[in-house]
Design goal:
Pfam families: Syd (PF07348). By secondary structure, this protein is an alpha+beta fold. The protein has one domain: SMI1/KNR4-like, CATH 3.40.1580.20. The chain is built from 5 helices and 11 strands; from the N terminus they run H-E-E-E-H-H-E-E-E-H-E-E-E-E-H-E.
Length: about 190
């Protein structure tokens, strides 16, 4: 029997708040064009290609070995908080606000999206090794500055604001669960 982690609980609370904000502000779920070539359990109804279709975050039902494979590729164990974060829901990125500004929590839309993430995280890790920086794993983008992202320190699970060029800038929180709990959800805009 599996137990729910603090990160999973925090993400559940965030998504519950995000859906509430979405309904309060727009009265409906976000919409995006249906793409049969990029399927997801998030779609709320089948549609014709290109038709605007409601979607929502949906809990993943099956465990993934994505982070075991990332750890094997890097010859390093991956912090369990980031594993819990990416293995909890299928979703498009989720907008949020914090004192530092607007950000998007990255999520996986489908298993193929997980493979894209795997390649990006491994590339990021190899770049960090080349620069002799400790391993961090990104999970959010800062909206106002494409050079900035938010990551988890793989060693201790602390959360950092990082720059692509300069590396870690400052610690934002002591844990991923605390960071997620500090976020204010923002309604997800429709995609064209």
């Amino acid at each position: 029997m599996s137990t729910t982690t603090n990160v999973e609980q925090a993400l559940d609370r965030f998504i519950e708040r995000a859906l509430s904000v979405q309904m309060e502000q727009s009265g409906r779920l976000p919409h995006q064009p249906y793409d049969p070539e990029w399927p997801s359990d998030c779609y709320q109804a089948p549609a014709t290609p290109g038709q605007q279709t409601a979607w929502r975050p949906v809990r993943q039902c099956t465990a993934s070995d994505l982070f075991e494979r990332i750890g094997a590729a890097l010859d390093q164990d991956i912090h369990p908080d980031i594993v819990s974060f990416y293995n909890r829901y299928w979703s498009d990125p989720l907008p949020a606000r914090r004192s530092e500004g607007m950000l998007s929590l990255l999520q996986l839309w489908n298993p193929e999206d997980g493979e894209r993430l795997r390649a990006n995280l491994i590339g990021h890790a190899l770049n960090q090794r080349r620069r002799k920086r400790p391993l961090s794993l990104f999970f959010a983008c800062v909206e106002e500055d494409e050079d900035l992202f938010i990551s988890l320190d793989n060693c201790n699970g602390s959360i950092w604001l990082e720059s692509v060029r300069r590396g870690p800038l400052r610690q934002l929180d002591s844990s991923l669960a605390a960071f997620i709990d500090s976020l204010e959800p923002v309604a997800t805009p429709d995609q064209e």
